[in-house]
Amino acid sequence: MAETVRGAKKKVVAFTAGRRGGNTEIYVKIALEAIAKMGIDCELIRLHECNLMPCKDCLRGPCYVKGPAACILKDDGPWLAEKFLDSDGYILGAPVWSLSPCGVVTDFRDRVFGPKMDQAMWETDGIPDWAKNRVKQRPGGLISVGGALTEHWTSLGLATLYTTTFSAQTNVVDNMNVYQVADPGEALMRKDYMTRAKYLGQNVGHAVLNPQKDWENKWLGELDDGEACPGCHTSLVMAKPGRNYVECAVCGRKGMITLDKDGNICYSWPEDNKNRLTMMGKFDHAREINRHTEDIYSPHVEEIQEELKRYREMEQWSVKAPSKQPSKV
Ligand SMILES: Cc1cc2nc3c(=O)[nH]c(=O)nc-3n(C[C@H](O)[C@H](O)[C@H](O)COP(=O)(O)O)c2cc1C
């Protein structure tokens, strides 16, 4: 592998969804152009061109123990996981479809990331052989692209892209929420977003070339007063009546709400080292899962067996998809 002044050559892998040559891909390529200029190798993988089946949730299945290659599904999922593990930086771009990233993104997330890639588990239980020498805090950049003229039509885009980053401790150093970019090539009519994509690439590149032991909360993107959460730099919050606080829907941070003299919402975000962008936040989550199994589920599991069998055998309404029906020839 070629060497640079900073040592072994680094690699950023960009996973992109949406149309081939579409708006998302254009912004991702602008970011990669900036990264490549910094002497970093780049790869672009089109998720829509991968053969990717939904995760079967064979809980604690072979992929946990033996790694992605042992997955029971024979498709491009394991290859995608290896591509991620062998990278030093991560970019994910996707168009918004019905408020959220297009569906392939969640299949990608569930197959490549999730509990089996959870670095918090590896810190307590030891790093599995298949991940050895590939555990790092990778910097990441997220690009969500929506066509609607109103931003709220893209509400779950960035938030959902973020959900691919928690387990493997990908630290998002920059993100961009594009809206009003709908038709083929329209990405190129927005010089502002093109510049943002270049800066996003430079920010990811900088973070890749200057690895920190702990990149948590090391944001390199623009500081925008319009963002609610100062931890993950998104604005999707859970706001329930009767509370004087909100919770960030992405990272889980708690923000206190007040109103200024003009009646505008103001947030203050107490110090927090236990949101889910942090290793401690994920330890807490692992502990709540264990507590649930030990205290709530296990003591009563025998009591439900008979009823469970009845529901499992309840097949009278199940309809088989044409692909699962016996062939007529
Ligand atoms: C099925 C479908 C649903 C869409 N829903 C939304 C939406 O909810 N909000 C939005 O802003 N744009 C929506 N769009 C528009 C796309 O986000 C937009 O065209 C985008 O530029 C496509 O990116 P691409 O060229 O990278 O594929 C939708 C497009 C499709 C095909």
Structure description:
The chain is of the alpha/beta class. The protein has a domain at 3-221: Flavodoxin domain (Rossmann fold). Helix content is 30%, strand content 18%. The chain is built from 9 helices and 12 strands. It has helices spanning 23-37, 62-66, 77-85, 104-112, 119-125, 157-162, 191-209, 279-297, 305-313, and strands spanning 3-4, 7-8, 11-16, 41-46, 89-97, 100-101, 139-145, 171-178, 237-238, 245-248, 254-259, 265-268. Strands 3, 4, 5, 6, 7 and 8 form a 6-stranded mixed β-sheet that branches. The chain has a 4-stranded antiparallel β-sheet with strand order 9-10-11-12, with no helix packed on it. Strand 9 and strand 10 (245-248) form a beta hairpin. Helix 1 (23-37) packs across helix 7 (191-209). The radius of gyration is 22 Å and the shape is globular. The model has no long low-confidence stretch (mean pLDDT 93). The protein binds flavin mononucleotide.
